[in-house]
Amino acid sequence: MAASIFAAVPRAPPVAVFKLTADFREDGDSRKVNLGVGAYRTDEGQPWVLPVVKKVEQMIANDNSLNHEYLPILGLPEFRANASRIALGDDSPAIKENRVGSVQSLGGTGALRIGAEFLRRWYNGNNNTATPIYVSAPSWENHNSVFMDAGFKDIRTYHYWDAAKRGLDLQGLLNDMENAPESSIFILHACAHNPTGTDPTPEQWKQIAGVMKRRSLFPFFDSAYQGFASGSLDKDAWAVRYFVSEGFELFCAQSFSKNFGLYNERVGNLTVVGKDADNVQRVLSQMEKIVRTTWSNPPSQGARIVATTLSSPQLFDEWKGNVKTMADRVLLMRSELRSRLEALGTPGTWNHITEQIGMFSFTGLNPKQVEYMIKEKHIYLMASGRINMCGLTTKNLDYVAKSIHEAVTKIQ
Length: 412
What we know:
Layout: H1 16-26, E1 33-34, H2 51-61, H3 77-88, H4 93-96, E2 100-106, H5 107-122, E3 133-137, H6 141-149, E4 155-159, E5 161-162, E6 167-168, H7 170-179, E7 185-189, H8 202-214, E8 218-223, H9 233-236, H10 238-245, E9 250-255, E10 267-273, H11 277-292, H12 301-311, H13 313-344, H14 352-355, E11 360-362, H15 367-377, E12 379-380, E13 386-388, H16 397-410
Parallel strand pairs: 1-12, 3-4, 3-7, 7-8, 8-9
Antiparallel strand pairs: 2-10, 5-6, 9-10, 11-13
Helix pairs in contact: 2-12, 2-13, 3-12, 5-6, 5-11, 7-8, 8-10, 12-13, 13-16, 15-16
């Protein structure tokens, strides 16, 4: 029998976070804890369907005027407009001046990919694969892959995390921006930096914007956690809105997986801010061509849930309350974990646990300590030491804190 034409295909390594979840599921130990995957969990350790989402789903199901016809290539208009509005603010000068456009996408990843594909074809000259793309060190693992697979050849890192002080390396970041070639593209986390949970302050963002403007660097924001980080939509969008107010043209990839709990609906949006309406319309015309050969038309259900919620003042207020419920639980788990580690006298400082924000915390645990946590304590976390704060509950906090204490004390 002839060999398969696919015989030379190597097996790709598994995606780390999903492999971690698979290992967790197979673990039969009753003490096991999953601090890996980036999804919200209740204090009972269960996924949460937001009450406002349940309500809107019923409204959609009972609306006899709806059908399953194709959406426009760029997506549901009322979803796109409202998604960009909450990113940029009701009083955004860019929206008022009609120089904002958007593309509905398959999650935040799809927004990043459409943006990357467009930039590779059209940014700073046709088909410019040599433009440097700068990604924070560390960053969400998909950032590098998305831009690499879009055809960019020069992907670099910029300083971000200072392991010694467990915080932002602002000077390293600014130096990298100063030394980057003009017109380089920088991927910026709008809030709740993944994986570190460490964000610049508004004053630091102003310094970053100042250097980027002077060096003609292009900001591509990734906003996956608006409202989820602090509980405030406005606070979590501060950086994006400040850059717009400073006259930047920019892209902002948005995800509604976390803040709406719509993980498997893949609801995303790419907001484009340009110099004027004509520029934006030309950009969207090219993005429409990219979408046509990628997924052709986006799905409607998740987009309708978001659009209906954001269009109604009453539902919008209810949603903000749901989001604050999630954010407050994360903040409580941060406070409780830190207090337990300090009460145990765990070596090192743990103030970074509460100084960080959002779903993730960069604990500072090294790979050997992580291995000990997984193998000996059945607590699953990323090799980088990143944990999902939502995986903590009032029932497992003591066990996790004592296990971290043991790992840090026993293993250097």
